[in-house]
Design a protein that fits this description.
mainly alpha, Nucleotidyltransferase, domain 5, 4 helices, globular
Length: about 120
Amino acid sequence: MGGIISPGIETTAWALYQRAAKLPKISLELPSRVIGKTTEESMQSGIMIGTVKLVDGLLEEVMSEMNAKPHVIATGGLAKLIQKKSKYIETYLPHLVLEGLYLIYEMNKDYNTHEII
């Protein structure tokens, strides 16, 4: 079907910290308001609230193209924070990828690779 590639929260924060000489390294958490009163709050708003809006905006485009409303699952460590503000993320499964890899392992663990010629 296809997909979407975009920088994540940590990549965005790292890029700002590394590329902008005066911007500090910050904690990645949701700010209490959108308009920050400090540099850290302003960066948190841009990164965290910006990511929520990016995700929701992309999901709106996907739903429009699909003409359907899919069940949206967030995964990964920081996704829980995004889910709190997202209009569309319904489920948070922090270890979805690892659980999938484990299921693949379980399905294939009895396969004898020595018999392949």
